[in-house]
Amino acid sequence: RPVFTKQPGSVVFPLQPGENRREVVFSCEAQGHPPPFYRWKLNESFILPRPGSRYSLMGGNLHISHLNKEEDVGIYQCLASNSFGTIVSREASLHIAYLENFKTQRRSPVRVREGQGVVLLCGPPPHSGELTFTWIFNEYPSFVIQDTRRFVSQKTGNLYIAKVEPSDVGNYTCVVTNTVTKSSVQGPPTPLVLRVDGVMGEYEPKIEVQFPEIVPVAKSSTVKLECFALGNPVPTISWRRVDGASFGRKVDINKASGVLEIPYFQQEDAGIYECVAENSRGRNSVKGKLSFYAPPHLTEKPQDVQKTIDDTLVWECKASAKPKPSYRWLKNGEPLDPMEDRVQTNNGVLTISSLSLADIAMYQCVAENKHGRIFTNAELRVIAIAPDFSQNLLKAQTLARQGGDILIECKPRMSPRGVISWRKGKEALRESHRVTVLDNGSLRISNVSKMDAGLYTCVARNQFGVASSAGSLLVKEPTVITSPAGHLDVTVGESIVLPCQVSHDPTLDLKFTWFFNEQLIHFGSHGAYFEKVGGRSAGDIMIRNIQLRHAGKYTCAVQTKVDSVSIATDVVVRGPPGPPVDCQVTEMTETTASLSWGLGMDNHSPILSYTIQARTPFSLGWQAVTTVPELLGGKQLSATVTDLSPWVEYEFRVLATNSIGTGEPSKPSKKARTKEMLPRVTPARVNGGGGGRSELVITWEPVPEELQSGPGFGYVVAFRPLGAQGWMQAAVTSPDASRYVFKNESIPPFSPYQVKVGVYNNKGEGPFSPVTTIHSAEEEPSRAPGRLRARSVSASEVEVTWRPLAWSNNRRRILGYELQYWGEREKQDTASLIRTVGNKTSVLIRDLEGSSTYYMSLRAYNSAGVGPQSVIVNVTTKKPPPSQAPVKIMWNTSNSKVILRWDKVHALENESEVTGYKVMYSQDKHSRPSVVETNTTSLELSLPVNQDYVIQIKPFSEGGEGSSSRQITIPKIAGGTILTHET
Length: 983
Description:
Elements: E1 3-6, E2 11-14, E3 24-26, E4 29-31, E5 37-42, E6 45-46, E7 55-58, E8 61-64, E9 74-82, E10 85-88, E11 92-99, E12 110-114, E13 118-120, E14 127-128, E15 131-137, E16 150-152, E17 159-161, E18 170-178, E19 184-186, E20 190-199, E21 203-209, E22 214-218, E23 223-226, E24 228-232, E25 236-241, E26 252-254, E27 259-262, E28 271-279, E29 282-300, E30 305-308, E31 313-316, E32 318-322, E33 326-331, E34 334-335, E35 343-346, E36 349-352, E37 361-369, E38 372-383, E39 385-388, E40 397-401, E41 406-408, E42 413-415, E43 419-424, E44 427-428, E45 435-437, E46 443-445, E47 454-462, E48 465-476, E49 480-481, E50 486-491, E51 496-498, E52 502-503, E53 511-516, E54 519-520, E55 530-532, E56 541-543, E57 552-559, E58 564-574, E59 581-588, E60 593-598, E61 607-615, E62 623-624, E63 626-628, E64 632-633, E65 638-642, E66 649-658, E67 672-673, E68 684-688, E69 695-701, E70 714-721, E71 728-732, E72 739-743, E73 752-761, E74 764-768, E75 772-775, E76 786-792, E77 798-803, E78 816-823, E79 832-835, E80 842-845, ...
Parallel strand pairs: 2-11, 12-20, 22-29, 30-38, 40-48, 50-58
Antiparallel strand pairs: 1-4, 3-8, 5-6, 5-9, 7-8, 9-10, 9-11, 11-14, 13-17, 15-18, 16-17, 18-19, 18-20, 21-24, 23-27, 25-28, 26-27, 28-29, 29-32, 31-36, 33-34, 33-37, 35-36, 37-38, 39-42, 41-46, 43-44, 43-47, 45-46, 47-48, 49-52, 51-56, 53-54, 53-57, 55-56, 57-58, 59-60, 60-65, 61-62, 61-64, ...
Protein name: Contactin 3a, tandem duplicate 1
Domain Ig-like: 2-95, 100-186, 205-291, 296-381, 387-474, 478-566
Domain Fibronectin type-III: 579-677, 682-779, 784-880, 882-976
């Protein structure tokens, strides 16, 4: 079939004056087999290219020589034809652009008064194609400059001067340019002279340049509206839309407001536009409607189709356009005959019924409005064939369920459609109330029985031949679910089995599918809850550890190749109650809160009781509370919580309990604060003492915020000397305070005082704590300890002794002693410090360096501070112990004795002499060793037999213990004598 690969396009051809030898070519090319031949139309009439004429064909292209602007302008169309049909190309227009010269006759002077407006006419010569206009003032290249007073219309070419001034006098020449041919011509000059009969007075604007009442504008094109007025004073020009809409950013107002330009015109730009001319004498306006139009654009087009004889063709053709398009159809390039009853066209839809071979053709839909038309092509083929089952044989086997219905389809390919009949076995099939041959040839059997099984043959005939196809019908036993539909009632946490037992035809495979609340159960993706437990003829499933969310409808669906059945079981899951709802605080007092709540889900077990919990910013999570009534029954939906702390913010929640358990708590109530009241709790651990000279220090444990009972909380501190009558009092305003210091020079040292601490808040004063006795500040010790002595015990230890001071008197106590010690290369202010407690008179200083001199001093201390320093004494530590470990250790065993020998350890020059050795032995490396000392280099040990021993030897001196030897393992003694040594 022919398909266009090139189609002609519209041409605007420039032709200079006197020129007629130009040539134009319209392209047309189509593919097809056999190759198409071409014809052309001009203005709906065929062009006949004869030898010597100006028209010739080269392939499908049309050549026109010696253009004639009277004969060749018009609409061209190419037709391509082959044995499949004819198609028509899109329309292409030919316009010839030209511009002739002005007539040379002179123009009369235009006489005008100063202040008057004037119009100078251009009167362009004969032309075709778009023109532009300019005016020369007096002589080239002095051109008229457009401003608010002067305007050149590009529609008419005329020059408008709103108000003539003396400087405007002179000759004016209109210059016309053809935008296609690029040629320009000048008209004869028009003189402008001033009349001498006076100056024109002021007058209101008179609009001389205006636009039509209706301006059709194509989609996406650019529209320009011109507006200019004469008047004195010079009028101002403004633009507006009558509907009040504002101009978009793309709208351009130029030429001193004389031109409104709208590029890329769209539907929303359509409307009524108004030009307003104003001056001090008045106002005038003109209106015009810009109407949007769009040529047709195809949105749905027919596709090539192949049909059989007597079939029906339906083609739909749709296009978008403004105004709406009309549709017509072409058959092989000619208008389709709508007179035949079987051919219907309706709003772009073509319907041809009872197709015949005569309908084979190329069809084209033409969508058009007054702004353009568009063509689309489609091929219709009508085929005639004998019956043929090769592409659609009957199914070799059709399975049917006994008692069910079955449809055996028979769909041979044939054109025209003929007669279809059926045979069962070798006999013609008789139709009955159960056996029916449908209009489309398919065989339907209702209430199938075993007798219906057998071989069925479909026979198709038309005038071109006959064909048949056969297939077997097998009748199977129906599938029946033997498990009864049920209702199960279970408790959360239990495991249950949902049965799905079936009887079925043994030759058919079963497929079991389970649904929960109409949703497919994917086994393995629901945690470990669902599990298949059925055999070949059972689809049972188990639900382990069932939860509340598993309550609902369970459906078992069973499928075979011939039928499907299903059964449903409703499962009710009983569990602890759901959370109560809408927990609210209805009233708060100082120590109580009234609560109400609503019923939650009982989860199929009646609610027996409720529990209320509370929390505060000071509590560790939620705590159970006391209520009235004390026991809250299952129908109780309100209660009063008691024993609350005043002036504390509380949240409450409610939990419901049934026979299965306690459920989730309700959402917490909104936070609510109990009312304030007098404080009731006094500070704990009231005590005191210490401090500086002339001070009485009183301490206590602050009252927690939740026990302060209201804002403005503080303490009242009361004190008096022991035995006095009246109390002195002081207020401490900080609720976090934990001490008060009373300072007065009259306070004797270490005197007994009675003290108590009370509480208050904005409501008033609360109780005092019990009275306790404390002492005022004592004086620091006044004497230094005597007889300070220091003795080196080893290379790293020094023992310090002193004579104690008297333990106490009525003004001071001795709580212990403070010892300072420092090396000879250190200063006292960096000394190390050791404090003793009680009446201790000695201390051992450890971790010192050997052969080093240390200085030390001693002071007594008490709660007031330290006393004077004792005399400073010094001591030199002993030399360090030997650094060499014992070596060449030899040993032998006999019966239960071990004899050890080793080399003597010699001290170095700066080390103290060896005075003896320590031998340590144990059964393993981790147990505590036994120690034996000797001042010789040998030792005999009696050790039990049948045990391993670990032995180490280290020297010692007055400087302390030296380095230890390596560990020696002596294996258990086994009767003989073993001799070995370790170095």
